Amino acid sequence: MTDLFQYPMSYPGWWLSNYYYFTWTLAMLFLAGGWAFFYRYGKFSYGVDFGCFWKTTLLVFMTTIALGVPSYYNTKFVAQHGNDGDSIALSPDRIEYRYRNGEKKMFLLKDIVSIYQEPVTYNPPPKIFIVAQNAGLRDSITVTEGKHGLPNADKLLSTLAERTGQPVKRP
Question: Rounded CA gap, 77 and 18, in Å?
């Protein structure tokens, strides 16, 4: 019997595939606005001019915001919603991870060598790695738990641990 586990999709597929184009475009428009303000009201001289200090501070601040905010948002968004629409099929002899875009990754249960949670999570939610090794090659899939994670992840992990004989190692 095959058990199917699926991440919910909280955003439309087109947004999940293209959100970073929008965030970076908005950030660059924000930065362009800062430069437009600077060129409109800036004083250009070749000497040391402390009157231009506030304008330079404005540009440094706007550049920091324009580069930092999309990086923060994109990192947080992919951590929380990067798996939306993906599914995991657990059959008696293999586990198959199907990505939202149609790609697949499959391991035989006998090839799984460890199941563990990452020791330090810098970007929640924590990921649990399912590592397989076959013919000297190692590969892994990840499962996330928690509010933005896989529903019934505990059931998947306990069933997988039971079928493979590998305990789920947590820090």
Answer: 12
8 Å CB contact between 55 and 38: yes
Token readout for 138 is: 């190692």
Q: Are residues 21 and 53 in the same domain?
A: yes
Residues 19, 71, single domain; the answer is yes
pLDDT at 46: 56
Could you give the CA distance from residue 29 to residue 125 in angstroms, rounded to a whole number?
31
pLDDT band at 54 (very low <50, low <70, confident <90, very high): confident
For 77, the domain range is 9-81
Lowest mean pLDDT among 8-12, 25-29, 45-49, 104-108: 45-49
Count of alpha carbons within 13 angstroms of residue 35, beta-carbon side: 8
130-144: burial string, b at 16+ Cβ within 10 Å, e else: bbbeeeeeeebbbbb
Q: Rounded to an integer, what distance in angstroms lies between the CA atom of residue 170 and that of residue 64?
A: 37
How does the average pLDDT of the chain come out, rounded? 88
CA 51 to chain centre: 43
| CA–CA dist 103, 70 (Å, integer) | 27
The set of long-range contacts for 41-48, using a CB threshold of 8 Å and a minimum separation of 24, is none
